[in-house]
């Protein structure tokens, strides 16, 4: 599968290379060794299966409508009347095993878990979830991919895994025959409501597609701030490009008082380069011109962004312990005011807004004028969190499993969505002033979508709804309206590169090590040229060539 440009893939590489390298032989053993040239996985000269015909869910009436470019439908209140999205149980009563990631606490099984049992009953299956922590994900997935006893449903896409495309072809069901075109949209309408950009980013392998995207919004890593304090410092300007870097830096200096750092970051964020490089006009990982792919890492814009972050680090705006601060601690430090701003994934906004509860305003810092003359290019996400593949099985079982995924993708405003995400009213939650699930019960604090994450099996397209926080939802919507149109996608998404499939974690580690050295002043900015030279000779140039070759033959 194509490289994913998510924060997880780009940033959580500490140790990733070693894990990936260890997993590689096992993955090759699954059948990939016979296709190590990548020819079978390439889409060149293959008939490309069409995605399900995009069909937005009818009957939803957002207060602030989204856009095809990726601005989310926004709801300021919870829908008064929930609809039944899936009229009949899709399951056949059988056991269905799924392997997914988890960020919660391992829950009790469905025999002792009312939420799990209720979803199983509604879907008509005995869904057995194997939940693996993010820290153990790559090791567990590597072992699973090498094993003969695969689960029915497999979550992928959190990290670039060696020979993943080979694994998909060898072990997983090609889905085009079930989901493609109008027929697929009619049979599985909730899956057809997933935006095309998400499918495009997942891409095809050998002309077919083997996975369904778990949707995420287009706006990616973001620069969040206490906008009240930014306003007091004279640096709150919600117009993209309305604030110069010099003005921003001067304001950050005012906010960088004892016990408070103007810029928050953590050990996997590399000082927020995913956000700041786009502000300086860096292409989204690759640029594509005349059929040739060129790495963004080697651009003057990327170098300029490193210079900016190094300047800020030298002025003491970042916590000196930044390279040891966990992402969880960073969030806490932003919410308690230790950090006046931070960079984080777009999805972090909801958590911040809920935690802060309008005691102060959390908002998105708009791209500033970096002073280089380059137009800001915020990096858009692939539009997915991960993607779901199905183990090869009979057509009847595959159709049943797709029906279960269609059930789990029931949209916001449906009875199924509420059950999957909040549980049973009175058992797991009570309703708030706007009618939406608001306060969890004691049981709901244990049995919830964090600890029983069906959402990582499959999920509906995400909407912008923040229970009881309509003003924050408005700010989130406006930020998307302002920033998404400026955003640029990664042109390599959906295009196969055998070298990238095998070597990306190692290559990415080289990049981030070089960045951290420069930003913290341990290496000169000029050393970046050597970092790029080594990166290109270690595989970067080969990836660019492979991307260009496949692009030329699949886009003519």
The percent range for helix content is: 25-40%
**Mean pLDDT across residues:** 90
Secondary-structure content class:
alpha+beta
Largest sheet descriptor? 5 strands, mixed
Coarse morphology: globular
Which descriptors would you attach to this protein?
556 residues, alpha+beta, five-stranded mixed beta sheet, 12 strands, 10% strand, globular, disordered N terminus
What does this structure look like?
With 556 residues, the chain is an alpha+beta fold. It has 20 helices and twelve strands. It has helices spanning 7-11, 16-29, 114-123, 137-146, 164-171, 176-179, 181-187, 189-192, 196-202, 227-232, 245-255, 273-279, 300-314, 327-335, 348-356, 395-408, 415-422, 470-483, 498-519, 528-554; strands at residues 95-102, 126-133, 153-156, 212-215, 222-226, 286-289, 292-295, 341-344, 362-364, 384-390, 429-431, 437-440. The chain has a five-stranded mixed sheet with strand order 2-1-3-10-4, sandwiched between helices.
């Amino acid at each position: 599968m194509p490289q994913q440009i998510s924060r997880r893939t780009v940033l959580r590489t500490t140790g990733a290379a070693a894990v990936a390298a260890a997993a590689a032989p096992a993955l090759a053993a699954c059948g990939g060794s016979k296709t190590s040239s990548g020819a079978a996985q390439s889409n060149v000269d293959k008939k490309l299966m069409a995605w399900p015909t995009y069909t937005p869910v009818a009957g939803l009436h957002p207060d602030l409508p989204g856009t095809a470019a990726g601005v989310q439908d926004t709801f300021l209140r919870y829908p008064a009347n929930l609809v039944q999205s899936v009229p009949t149980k899709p399951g056949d009563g059988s056991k269905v095993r799924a392997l997914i990631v988890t960020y919660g606490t391992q829950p009790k099984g469905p025999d002792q878990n009312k939420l799990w049992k209720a979803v199983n009953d509604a879907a008509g299956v005995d869904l057995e979830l194997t939940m693996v922590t993010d820290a153990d994900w790559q090791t567990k997935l590597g072992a699973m991919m090498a094993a003969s006893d695969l689960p029915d449903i497999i979550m992928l896409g959190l990290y670039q895994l060696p020979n993943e495309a080979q694994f998909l072809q060898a072990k997983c069901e090609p889905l085009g025959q079930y989901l493609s075109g109008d027929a697929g949209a009619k049979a599985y309408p909730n899956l057809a409501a997933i935006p095309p950009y998400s499918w495009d980013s997942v891409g095809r392998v050998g002309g077919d597609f083997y996975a369904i995207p778990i949707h995420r919004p287009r706006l990616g890593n973001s620069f969040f701030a206490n906008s009240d304090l930014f306003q007091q410092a004279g640096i709150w300007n919600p117009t993209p490009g309305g604030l110069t870097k010099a003005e921003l830096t001067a304001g950050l200096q005012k906010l960088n008082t004892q016990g408070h750092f103007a810029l928050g970051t953590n050990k996997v964020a590399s000082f927020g380069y995913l956000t700041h490089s786009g502000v300086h006009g860096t292409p989204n990982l690759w640029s594509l011109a005349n059929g040739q792919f060129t790495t963004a890492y080697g651009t003057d814009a990327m170098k300029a962004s490193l210079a900016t972050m190094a300047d800020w680090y030298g002025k003491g705006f970042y916590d000196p312990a930044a390279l040891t601060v966990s992402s969880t601690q960073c969030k806490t430090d932003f919410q308690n005011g230790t950090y006046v701003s931070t960079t984080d994934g777009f999805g972090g906004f909801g958590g911040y807004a809920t935690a802060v509860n309008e005691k102060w305003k959390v908002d998105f810092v708009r791209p500033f004028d970096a002073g280089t003359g380059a137009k800001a290019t915020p990096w858009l996400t692939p539009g997915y969190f991960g993607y779901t593949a199905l183990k090869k099985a009979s057509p009847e079982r595959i159709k049943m499993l797709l029906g279960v995924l269609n059930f789990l993708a029931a949209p916001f405003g449906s009875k199924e969505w509420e059950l999957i995400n909040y549980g049973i009213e009175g058992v797991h939650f009570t309703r708030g002033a706007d009618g939406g699930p608001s306060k969890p019960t004691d049981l709901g604090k244990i049995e919830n979508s964090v600890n029983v994450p069906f959402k990582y099996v499959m999920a509906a397209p995400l909407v912008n709804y923040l229970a009881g926080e309509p003003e924050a939802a408005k700010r989130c919507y406006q930020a998307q309206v302002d920033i998404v149109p400026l955003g640029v996608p990664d042109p390599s998404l959906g295009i196969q590169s055998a070298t990238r499939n095998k070597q990306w974690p190692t290559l990415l580690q080289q990049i981030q090590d070089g960045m951290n050295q420069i930003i913290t002043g341990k290496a000169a900015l000029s050393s970046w040229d050597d970092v790029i030279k080594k990166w290109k000779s270690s595989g970067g140039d080969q990836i660019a060539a492979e991307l260009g070759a496949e692009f030329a033959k699949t886009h003519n």
